[in-house]
From TrEMBL:
It comes from Phoenix dactylifera (Date palm). Pfam families: Hydrolase_4. PANTHER family: ALPHA_BETA-HYDROLASES SUPERFAMILY PROTEIN, RE40534P-RELATED. Residues 42-167 form the Serine aminopeptidase S33 domain. This is Serine aminopeptidase S33 domain-containing protein.
């Protein structure tokens, strides 16, 4: 059972917005640590971080500030093995992280919140799309800089001939610039990534689910062409390429927040129109 705790988080809050840390168990019994930003609205957006990142990633903090300023409650959390959450970090783990997200969505639904959007950056973008293909219970999914072709981008992190090396030794230790081992990639975890099929996931998302993909034209980690692949396959999809933006939107945080908010607001307009209010 989740345990609300007094927050020691230093994120800046607007007047009328409360903040508390919450522990939510995943299906493996590991406690996931997150922070709820409560605006008084029961409509909740859940934010998901990327590879080797955390709920305190600056992009997530900036999005939290933008969303709460518009009255949207936000929950940002660490996947198992990342940040403050329990568990061991594993390379891959895409579907397992989608299951972590499911535990979070179920928890807040039981607390009488309406989880109306899941938003993920980088690997988190893959996770929210996988979630939508698996569970079909969240109406809005926003993928920020997710990778379509998961067989690419590995050599840059693991080195050349990574498959031969991992077959020979069973693992590859990835070191930082100082030579310290940052994390270990096992053969099983590598195959988890390589067997994660974003094409199959994309075409399995319900047409009723509204999906936004945002990507930077100057993304140095995931090429913008990956975003075009999502646009071709996802049934109810909108694509925004932010000119000049890199993978982390370093100089484009305000533009990113504006794009995300515009998409969420357009959903509210459509809801009102369907109800005959406009």
């Amino acid at each position: 059972m989740a345990q609300p705790l007094p927050s020691d988080d230093k994120a800046e809050e607007l007047p009328g917005i409360s903040q508390q840390r919450v522990l939510i168990p995943n299906k493996h019994g590991e406690k996931l640590v997150g922070v709820l930003h409560e605006t008084g609205s029961k409509k909740l957006a859940i934010l998901c971080h990327g590879f080797r990142a955390s709920k305190d990633d600056q992009t997530l903090l900036n999005l939290t500030a933008a969303l709460t300023s518009q009255g949207i409650s936000v929950f940002r959390f660490d996947f198992a093995g990342n940040g403050e959450s329990e568990g061991v970090f594993e390379y891959g783990n895409y579907r397992r992280e989608a299951d972590d997200l499911h535990a979070v969505v179920l928890y807040w639904s039981k607390q009488k919140y309406e989880v109306n959007a899941i938003i993920g950056h980088s690997k988190g973008g893959n996770v929210v799309l996988l979630y939508a293909s698996m569970y079909h219970d969240v109406p809005i999914v926003i993928n920020l800089s997710g990778r379509f072709a998961l067989d690419r981008g590995i050599e840059g992190r693991l080195g050349k001939e990574f498959m031969q090396r991992i077959k020979k030794d069973g693992f590859i230790d990835v070191k930082d610039k100082t030579g310290k081992v940052g994390f270990r990639v096992t053969e099983d975890s590598l195959m988890d990534r390589l067997s994660t099929d974003m094409h199959a996931a994309s075409i399995s998302i319900d047409k009723a689910c509204r999906v936004l993909t945002v990507h930077g034209s100057e993304d140095e980690i995931v090429p913008a062409e990956d975003a075009l692949e999502f646009a071709k396959l996802i049934p109810n999809h909108k694509l925004r390429i932010i000119e000049g933006a890199n993978h982390c939107y370093t100089a484009h945080q305000e533009v990113l927040a504006s794009v995300v908010l515009d998409f969420l607001k357009s959903d509210q307009v459509e809801d009102a129109s369907a109800a005959g209010d406009i």
